[in-house]
Each structure stands twice: as C-alpha cells, then as structure tokens.
Amino acid sequence: xxxxxxxxxxxxxxxxxxxxxxxxxxxxxxxxxxxxxxxxxxxxxxxxxxxxxxxxxxxxxxxxxxxxxxxxxxxxxxxxxxxxxx
Length: 86
Prior knowledge:
Elements: H1 2-24, E1 34-38, E2 47-51, E3 73-76
Antiparallel strand pairs: 1-2, 1-3
C-alpha cells in the first residue's frame, strides 16, 4: 500500500514542477508596431492601416481630414501599446 501512495504523490508532483518551469520561461510574442485608424466610431467608415517604426513620432494628418471628424477610433498592433496625442 505504501509504494502505491508514493507513486501517486510523485505523479502529482511532476506536473506541478513542469508547470512551474513553463511559467517562468520567457515567451516572446510577435509585436506589430502599427496602428489601425478609422474616421468612424467602432472602426467603421474610412480606415487606414498605418505601419510605424519603434521610437518614431508620426504625423497622420495626411491620412485623415482633421477639419472634419478626424480619427474616431484607433487600435495598436498585437502585443503592443501606443500613446496618442491630439
């Protein structure tokens, strides 16, 4: 009876160790440094995929008529974040 109990505990401990190792390993996700911009709310209307380079500030006035509605919705690429100024 004791050997069975020992194997049961060992079988429970191994998955926990394997999980712990995989959690600590860094995972590199692909990052897309781009913006998807639309002149309508909820990504409707005229939209533009705007690729950018890290560390660059970009003016996007040539893509949208800022005298009308300008940009009403925007999202950054996957696994990325962006700060936008108006």
